[in-house]
Amino acid sequence: MSAPAVPPASAREGAPSSRPTPGEPALVPGGLRLALVTRREGPLAPFRAALESHGFQVDVHRSGWDLLRTAPGRGWSLVVLDGLQTEVLAERGAVPAAVITELPPAAFAAATAGLAVLCALPPAPGAAEAEALLARLRAAGGLDPRIEAAQVRLDAMSRRHHPHCVVCWDRHPFGLKVDYRVTGEHRVAGVFDCGKSYEGYENVLHGGVVSSLLDGAMASCMLARGIEAYTVELRLRFRRPALIGEPAIIRGEWLRNEGPLHLLQASLEQGGLARASARAKFFEGTPLEPSQPMPGGPGVRPLLSQARKRLS
Length: 312
Description:
Blueprint: E1 33-37, H1 45-53, E2 57-61, H2 64-70, E3 78-81, H3 85-90, E4 98-100, H4 105-111, H5 127-139, H6 145-161, E5 181-184, E6 187-192, H7 207-224, E7 229-238, E8 248-258, E9 261-270, E10 273-284, H8 301-311
Parallel strand pairs: 1-2, 1-3, 3-4
Antiparallel strand pairs: 5-6, 6-8, 7-10, 8-9, 9-10
Helix pairs in contact: 1-5, 6-7
GO molecular function, one term: thiolester hydrolase activity
Membrane topology: Peripheral membrane protein
Enzyme class: hydrolase
């Protein structure tokens, strides 16, 4: 069945506020995010792994209350309710996404003022069920295949070329741990909590950290295109202090290229205000690779000089 339109959360009775609660990450529009509400993480592991292989970030919740508490700060493409839909309905909450549940579609839609149900969740879903679900989600217009493909490229390239990146590796002991997600053609976005450990001046995020976040967003844009490249020029503008304790959204965008030289831009926002912005040029290749022509090497410098002029 095609999923009916889901009314905005703010338009439904009992809907949570669209503003993230204190301590919750800010909403990143777009991207491939899925909320899985279950107490059966083991049996659903193959289903989850199949979705993650398509570039989905899966947020697992063990109760309907936990799902609704975090809903305002998330941008889910889909919510899977595994036997816990009664908790969601009991809380009179509104989930701003298409939903899978064991309840009959008509009954669930009636109980939630028209919330969409794409299909039923089988007892032990695996890779085949995940593929069928994604096909229905694409048919309903809830999944852009271009974003899906770009996210898969970004994840694969990050694992291959940046496995221990201080900006985006989620297990780095001192890292920033930003999960950049593809949000549109040539664009990515991520959220950073701006914790106290990254302070420069009192209650202000350190400028070097801001620089790393912006550079990481632009590098992720390149990886999402399937191209390994590194920064050869970075220009920053600090517009306002980035505050400690307030989640920031970092956005990156690929603009154009001239041969192996690519022009990108990025911004860091808090509370709807731009705190910093950057423009950078990335050069295709791998640093420290013996066969890699370096920007300052013989024969390369004049070519880059011409490319820089055309990209300016």
